[in-house]
Design a protein that fits this description.
This protein is mainly α. It has a domain at 45-123. It contains 4 helices and 2 strands; from the N terminus they run ββαααα. It has a two-stranded antiparallel sheet with strand order 1-2. The protein binds zinc ion (ZN). Zinc ion is lined by residues 4, 6-7, 9, 26-28, 31. The chain crosses the membrane at residues 48-68, 74-94, 106-123.
Amino acid sequence: MPKCVYCNKEIGDGPALHLDHDGGFCCGEDCKREATRYLATEKKYKHWYFLLLIGALMAWCVSFFFGIQQYVGGALAVLCGLVTILSPFVPQMMEDILGIARGQRVCIYVGALLVVTGILSVVK
Ligand SMILES: [Zn+2]
């Protein structure tokens, strides 16, 4: 049974709305509107978001050579955490399992965890 890509509810016998560009199904007009907006934003900004994360990871690797990985790692964890909280993007895997709406909420928790971890790693 298809699931709504936005709220992750199973689409029963009701009319399933098909998203453009083969984006999946939605259970109703509201979800379709939100999902369409999400997918449009995602298309525009997602590569910048991943470039930032890859850049952060590389900076962290490089910092090992200078023995400052604790500080750089902490700062980057805070940065990545903030980006994860502020950006509306949900990793594809989470999107499939939880749907966009719940995935966004989980991202906020993960981001907050990263920020806390980053701060603790520098303070210690
Ligand atoms: Zn829905």
